[in-house]
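Re: your question from the hallway

Yes, I did run it. Sequences:
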Amino acid sequence: MRVFTVLGILFYAVVLILIGMVLIVFSLNFLQPQDITNLLVYLQFNTNSRIIVGLSGILLITISFSFAQLLLGRFQKERNIAFTTASGEVTIALSAVEDLIKRLAGVIPEIKELRPDVIATKKGIIVDIRVALKSEANIPELTGRLQEITRSKIQEILGIEEQIITKIHVVKIISHHDIDKKKREQPEKEEPTIPFGGYGRLI
Amino acid sequence: MRGEESQTDLGNIRIHKNVIASVASIAATEIQGVKRIGGDLRSGIFELIGKKSLSAIKVDIDKNDEIRLEVPLVIKYGSNIPDIANKVQENIREALEKMTNLSIKYINVNVQSIEK
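Structure:
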């Protein structure tokens, strides 16, 4: 499948390069409209060449469709964890697991932002978390706690006994100064006013 | 065929797939811990253009008149997913068997998201 993908990409690259070259040659006046007309006339009046052109067209359409299907199929392929019960199959989208981990950020106040990426492999579930921490956080202690919470919460909620590998990547440490600055920059919310709210009120 | 058909002395009784999907939808949301029925591309498009959303529950009837259901779910945060999924499958099976006398082959539950 990978070979086919590489071939497909090469094919499109070659076609686009050829189109580009033809356009450049045309713009530099090396290719006259008459030459193009002659070529088209030759192709039109020769039966063999018409057959070849027709077959090439069909081949191009087939390659395009199969390549588009391959790419779209890959993008549409849902990533999920599956298990079977007596009544059928239960699949849990990995994005749902990511939602679950995002909610864990609320449990630990030292976490400013949390962006999880979950992958299901044969070895188990790999959770890759990118976090932005507040500056007062003790990183080894906090990341250890986050790993433990993530693992136990996933096992508790998903009810799976597979190995859960949690990788944490601290991408940013935000100081109190930055947080205060952001708060100050945010405009104060105005109280919503009700139109004609005081109408008819006796003072 | 758009649904399940059975014959009586007086004529035919047809149950549309949408009816099966509706029964399944109600039975699924009855379970505590189920936030709502999830969506698919089609129901999303219908929602975007402001039309009444069609149920995202897929109903398939095979040659042996057995029914297969695909139920997308959004689960409440804090619930045990396998437990909820099991309860949903059982409740849908019970409801459909009670209301339609249909034979259910399997009910596939797809947990799409978790919400608070």
